[in-house]
């Protein structure tokens, strides 16, 4: 069996001033796509603005119609026994 001469790499330490970023991608439902990069400092402000936009457009949602399910056979047999 051959012995490997590979040595484990030394891990690099992250830069102390490195700032974490997050990319947000959205679409308008058609052909337009938008994206933006948010830093950790801007996260809360972006989230508040995004929530405001979502709440403003919530009134356009339609209520779903309830679908009546057929009563099960056991429920029908239980009512006939009364």
UniProtKB/TrEMBL annotation:
It is found in: Cytoplasm. One of its GO terms (molecular function) is 7S RNA binding. GO terms for biological process: SRP-dependent cotranslational protein targeting to membrane. InterPro entries: Signal_recog_particle_SRP14 (IPR003210), Signal_recog_particle_SRP9/14 (IPR009018). GO terms for cellular component: signal recognition particle, endoplasmic reticulum targeting. Keywords: Cytoplasm, Ribonucleoprotein, RNA-binding, Signal recognition particle. SUPFAM superfamilies: Signal recognition particle alu RNA binding heterodimer, SRP9/14 (SSF54762). Belongs to the SRP14 family. Component of the signal recognition particle (SRP) complex, a ribonucleoprotein complex that mediates the cotranslational targeting of secretory and membrane proteins to the endoplasmic reticulum (ER). SRP9 together with SRP14 and the Alu portion of the SRP RNA, constitutes the elongation arrest domain of SRP. The complex of SRP9 and SRP14 is required for SRP RNA binding. Heterodimer with SRP9; binds RNA as heterodimer. Component of a signal recognition particle (SRP) complex that consists of a 7SL RNA molecule of 300 nucleotides and six protein subunits: SRP72, SRP68, SRP54, SRP19, SRP14 and SRP9. This is Signal recognition particle 14 kDa protein. It comes from [Myrmecia] bisecta. The lineage of its organism: Eukaryota, Viridiplantae, Chlorophyta, core chlorophytes, Trebouxiophyceae.
